Amino acid sequence: MRKIEPFRFKNFSLEHHQSAQKIGTDSVLLATWINSKYPLKILDIGSGCGLISFILAQRFPEAIITGIELDETSYLESLKNLESFPWKKNISFIEADFLHHNFQYEKFDLIISNPPFFKNAFLSGDSKRDIARHEFSMPHISLIEKCKSILKDQGTLALVLPPEESQVLLASKILHCNRIGYLKNKAQSNIKRHLTEWSLEENEIKKEDFILRDDSGAYSKAYRKLGKDYYLGF
To answer: Which of 74, 113, 124, 190 has the CB geometry, 3.0–4.6 Å to 19, for a possible disulfide?
Structure first.
């Protein structure tokens, strides 16, 4: 298998060749889109090579961040990436199954995840990739129930999901959705993902469109604004 080059951001580079799920737009966008204000304790579920944790460490340098990852090679790659990361003092990674991990009395101000979400797609035969991408490895109802138990009273859960999976969680009312970003590739495109924020308190849902590219195919002003501190060339 051809080695994938490190993904280079403005202030750090990340190896993701060994990780079950490679670096992609959804995770970067979720980590930069969330509106959490100065969280002190953050949990990154399915942390992979560490992407979301590293972006949040740059955004919130005083926060204590824990990444939890089931796949061993992804976890080991996150440790390798941590060695050269400029804001590494408050980040740690653990290799564990989130749904079965005992957090004891820990509570978090912000819990964030780009969870596996494929339900009906064919399995690739690559067990690591299938676990990272398919919902059987972390059912979303179980995910949100566990998150509810470890979320602080004023805390936020942030998830990026396909629209149909977002609707399932909205109907469950386990947590209350307070903000949805309808992610589209272009203004005329179908909604690709829901960027979502959830809490223990019910409030009116703030809804917004988020367009990745303008009609010419260039990145939108909104995307450039979120990514300007991270992406090269933004």
So the answer is: 74
